[in-house]
Design goal:
Immunoglobulin-like, signal, four-stranded antiparallel sheet, alpha+beta, about 30% helix, five-stranded antiparallel sheet, transmembrane, YcnI-copper_dom
Length: about 240
């Protein structure tokens, strides 16, 4: 095999490998919420995944803004971060289940790293909360400000269905129909909630599908390059 054909094969295999490896990385580059959907009026724990720093710079803090329709949030302790809640006055006081008047709500949660988290590492931040009972069929966004040793990233862009995803989308969760109980007390979810959940799951899996397609494409490029190199060698030998 000549140097030229060897270089061709190596280049093709390298390109295929890069595509195969880069695809799954690009699919998880955003701050995302798990689960991606939950029922209106339900208590849930939202896990915010932080996958990287700011253009290579270590992360020092994460500030999560809470939607106005959510009054109370309980942050989960992360042993490598301190946590603080910020209160925001309510325009109209509300009454809790015990009859107490509530005049403020949790407007945000800030996690601050005890030691800046290096780029290339991953962590999660969990918030326990109750989704609004009247939010079925909507999407709640939780804008995040990621502050780093050098620079910061605002994950606050609104995602519009049917349009290209913004570079820094706000983490969000789809709110499905509330879970009801039948006359025997058994819980069930109506067909609207199931359909909404299926649609949300399909949307959430889209990046994974893209990653798989790109990965397979990368392998195909490598194989084609190898075949071309072998063919060129045979012609040269002949």
């Amino acid at each position: 095999m000549t140097f030229k054909t060897t270089a061709l094969a190596a280049s093709a295999l390298l390109a295929g490998g890069i595509l195969a490896l880069a695809a799954p990385l690009s699919a998880s580059a955003h701050i995302e919420i798990d689960p991606s959907s939950a029922a209106a009026g339900s208590y849930t724990v939202l896990s915010f995944a932080l996958p990287h720093g700011c253009a290579g710079s270590p992360t020092t803090s994460i500030s999560i803004a809470i939607p106005e329709s959510i009054a109370s949030v309980t942050p989960t302790v992360n042993p490598l971060w301190t946590v603080a809640k910020t209160e925001t006055p309510l325009a109209t006081p509300i009454t809790d289940d015990d009859g107490n008047s509530i005049t403020t709500r949790i407007g945000g949660v800030v996690y601050t790293a005890i030691t800046p988290m290096a780029d290339g590492l991953r962590t999660t931040f969990d918030l326990s909360l109750m989704l609004p009972a009247d939010a079925a069929g909507t999407t709640l966004e939780f804008p995040v400000v990621q502050t780093c040793v050098t620079g910061s990233t605002n994950w606050d862009a609104h995602t519009v269905e049917g349009e290209a995803e913004p570079e820094h989308p706000a983490p969000s969760i789809a709110v499905t129909a509330a879970v009801a109980s039948d006359e025997h007390g058994a819980a069930h979810t109506d067909t609207t909630a199931e359909a909404s959940s299926e649609a949300t799951d399909a949307a959430a899996s889209a990046p994974d599908v893209l990653a798989r397609v790109l990965g397979v494409g990368g392998l195909v490029v490598g194989v084609v390059g190898l075949v071309l190199a072998i063919t060129a060698r045979r012609k040269h030998s002949a």
